[in-house]
Amino acid sequence: MTKHRLGLHTRLCFHLSRTKRPLTRCFVIYLGCYFHLSRTKRPLTTCPLPSEATSLINHKTPCFSLAENLIVRGLFDSARKVIRRIIKQCPSVSEAISAVEFSISRGVEPDAANYGFLIRQLVTSGETHKTEVVYVDCILNRGGIVALGKFDALHIGHRELAIQAAKRGIPFLLSFVGMAEVLGWEPRAPIVAECDRKRILSSWAPYCGNVMPRELQIDFSKVRYLTPCQFVEKLSKELGVRGVVAGENYRFGYRAAGDASDLVKLCEEYGLEAYIINSVMDTNQISGALNSNDGKERGQVSSTRVRYALDKGDMKYVSELLGRNHRLVLMMEDQERFTSERNRLSAPKSCLLNLAPKEGLYENCSVLIDKNDMPCRVIVDTTDIHLEFYEVANFSCVTSQDLKILGIEFGSPELDGVQIL
Questions:
Q1: In 167-213, which residue ranges form alpha helices assigned H by DSSP?
Q2: What is the distance in angstroms between the CA of the first residue and the CA of the last residue of the chain?
Q3: Per DSSP, what are the bridge partners of residue 385?
Q4: Residue 213: pLDDT band by 50, 70, 90 thresholds?
Q5: Rounded Cα distance, 87 and 96, in Å
Q6: In principle, which of 19, 66, 303, 371 could form an S-S bond with 152, CB 3.0–4.6 Å?
Q7: Where are the alpha helices (DSSP H) in 106-190?
């Protein structure tokens, strides 16, 4: 009998008999962040729960019956949502563990969100050692599900990869750093500022079982010459992943020798799960305007299309591809290079940390400070970026604070028709 087939109660007792060390401060802090992301703000099912503190392991109760029916019909994701609801409403730790046991006994491995609610119950009850056991044994040791791609733009296609990974385990985004330097590509600004990536991934949590995808980056120079087989071997033996998710057009290995079908075969050889998903297609028909030499161009949402839309200054199209408004990040530390007058703040484009749209005037923008939106319009010219605020008070608020970075968001429809003072 393998470790994961043992009952959760048994595994907890087994580990606690050998684990008496106190929790570290870092572990407690990490768990606090994990529980915050595991919380849900909407009900996951409308099924009634028993009001009495009777044993939830009675499978005739409505929610267990619903979960049982969903499992029989093969609707495992829906069953996990119902079980998640049960775990959340359990009045005691033992009943929450029993709900997890019910899921495992029916052949449905709880996902990260379900274990997250169980861990939250354990922390609330002061069961710190049990918390550590569940986290290490049921989450860390299970291995992550890695989404494969470049993830420059973090667009809706990338989000779909993360969603599919989260359905099967802890979602990670695996990408390579240093490709431009190794391959001799001309340097170019990223679509998403490095300091803004965590915010975007956090916004994906509601789509990913209330778990924020995490990034895993590998130095490209260390994997450049790996064959497809060696690459999958690295995923299995060095990174310890449990499975991968990739798009149907994904290629990997030296000189892109492997395709999606090769990935499935190799993962099977190394005991990894492999999931190939259909591309998220772009509804805008612009293929002729893109580089016809791009062999990967088949009409799917891509970072290339996001760059194209930014280059055209079409911020509505950019928002459709990203699934959010584009945020430009301005480095504010060297304010001696800034100029200001009345309601206008100007900065050189060299202070930008990511890609700006084409030169022009952009209405309906906003500057974000401490989660407050300050309406403005943005003017991009050949050398500078200019922010013109609709209210002088907002301008004063920006210029009077000791800010390190400033977020500028494009596209706020509610501001239509507002005039500059």
A1: 179-183, 197-203
A2: 74
A3: 347, 380
A4: very high
A5: 5
A6: 303
A7: 112-124, 128-134, 156-166, 179-183
- The answer to whether the beta carbons of residues 397 and 369 sit under 8 Å apart is yes
Give the list of residues 6+ apart from residue 186 with CB closer than 8 angstroms, or none. Answer: 180
What values do phi and psi take at 114, rounded to 5?
-65, -45
d(CA 129, CA 12): 9
Report pLDDT digits (tens) over 249-285.
Answer: 999 999 999 999 999 999 999 999 999 999 999 988 6
Give pLDDT tens digits for 177-198. 889 899 999 989 999 999 999 9
Tokens of 341: 């007058």
Token code pair at residue 110 = 């709880």
Cβ within 8 Å of residue 99, ≥6 positions away: 56, 57, 83, 86, 87, 90
Tokens of 219: 């130095």
DSSP β-bridge partners for residue 218: 176
* pLDDT confidence band for 295 (50 / 70 / 90): low
94-to-57, 116, 130, 270 alpha-carbon distances in Å: 10, 15, 12, 37
Q: Which two tokens stand for residue 408?
A: 């500028």
254 DSSP 8-state letter: G
Residue 172 sits at φ, ψ, to 5 deg, of -125, 145
What was the pLDDT predicted at 238? Answer: 86
Q: What is the mean pLDDT of the chain?
A: 81
Helices (H) and strands (E) in the chain, counts: 15, 12
Query: How far apart, in whole angstroms, are the C-alpha atoms of residue 403 and residue 332?
Result: 6
More confident residue, 335 or 207: 207
